[in-house]
């Protein structure tokens, strides 16, 4: 098994360094007005199969780290209050709201985002397109991420179970009737059917 190379991400300009010492020297030289990174603020997490060591500030949410610092733009900010599901990611096999989770709490965690789901070629992506489950598409990554967490836990959900799992995700365009169709089709595909 190939060992993943760790890297340290500058919290101010997103430049990556191979050592914490290099990150700290960079921050002191290039970002004099900002606080210097400390070892206490460094976390390790695996995102979409890639391991990262990053310096985080205590107030950063996981959304801020993933979206604003790491550039994973599939994670959306709709309400910033944990009420819409647009910022959903999978952490340790559970769907969580990244806007309500502090990044510092994610040390050692495994996280999957909509980008990772799409890169893996998960059938949810094609079934969501086929069943026209989006209009503006803003909420789609959160729905897909939540649906994947459901299918990982329950590969043969009923329509009611799908509706219940997705009930925390909001869609301003009103595409709700299409989501269960897409999820059930993806479940059938994963099982080997069509």
Task: Give your account of this protein's structure.
With 194 residues, this protein is of the alpha/beta class. 35% of the residues lie in helices and 14% in strands. The protein contains seven helices and seven strands. It has helices at residues 20-30, 62-69, 114-119, 123-130, 140-153, 159-165, 178-191; strands at residues 8-9, 16-17, 42-47, 50-55, 88-91, 94-97, 110-112. It has a seven-stranded mixed sheet with strand order 2-1-4-3-7-5-6. A hairpin with a 6-residue loop joins strand 1 (8-9) and strand 2. Helix 4 packs antiparallel against helix 7 and helix 6 (159-165) crosses helix 7. The protein is elongated, with a radius of gyration of 18 Å. The two termini are 34 Å apart.
Arithmetic mean of pLDDT: 91
Query: Helix proportion of residues, in percent?
Result: 25-40%
Strand content: 5-15%
Order of helices and strands: EEHEEHEEEHHHHH
- Beta-strand segment tally: 7
Global shape: elongated
Rg, rounded, reads 18 Å
- End-to-end Cα distance, whole Å, is 34 Å
Low-confidence stretches: none
Question: How would you characterize the largest beta sheet?
Answer: 7 strands, mixed
Look at the helices and sheets and give the structural class.
Answer: alpha/beta
Task: Please give the order of strands in the largest beta sheet.
Answer: 2-1-4-3-7-5-6
Q: How large is the count of helical segments? A: 7
